[in-house]
Specification:
single chain, 3 helices
């Protein structure tokens, strides 16, 4: 018996985001924002992806019994929203170095979360072109999460050069 494989549509093409280079960005520039609709399905998919199964994140009754209005997005999933916005902006040769954040409001099922940021600082260090992004997630009620994402961007002179960090935070420059 031969296995059935559905036909593959080879005409579908995903747009590759444009590459951002260190020389092209300035302090104060905004990065493109994205709105995320937090459906129950999306939130349960986040729970499955992170394998973080406490009922607070997928069961309204448990969330309400613990003082929340309803199911809410977990920390890692809040960072996933930021990662999507940052990676779409910086392009395929940019790399995230670090992220710090503070959550001040639940990201609830049914909310539309507006995620964006601005370039707070730009500098060079040990051969790296670094940029601090001041990030913000807004819930329908108020700002729900703030923090900083530090990224390394390639330069126009070496457009495909990217860093690799080890466990101690030391970078090795890699040409691809």
């Amino acid at each position: 018996m031969q296995a059935f494989y559905p036909p593959v549509d080879t005409t579908v093409r995903w747009a590759i985001p444009p590459q951002v280079y260190f020389e092209q960005v300035n302090e104060g520039d905004a990065i493109p924002a994205v709105d995320f609709n937090l459906t129950v399905q999306r939130m349960i998919m986040f729970v499955g992806a992170t394998r973080n199964f406490p009922g607070l994140h997928h069961n309204d009754r448990i969330a309400q019994a613990n003082g929340a209005t309803g199911i809410f997005l977990q920390n890692n999933s809040c960072l996933m929203l930021w990662e999507r916005v940052v990676s779409d902006w910086m392009g395929i040769f940019g790399r995230v170095r670090s992220a710090t954040f503070r959550i001040t409001e639940f990201h609830l099922a049914g909310d539309t979360i507006h995620v964006g940021g601005t370039i707070h600082k730009k500098w060079q260090e040990n051969g790296l072109n670094l940029v601090d992004l001041a990030m913000e997630s807004k819930t329908p009620r108020r700002v729900g999460m703030t923090g900083t994402v530090t990224v390394a961007l390639p330069s126009l002179k070496y457009p495909s050069t990217t860093p690799m960090w080890d466990r101690d935070g030391k970078a090795t420059i890699v040409c691809q």
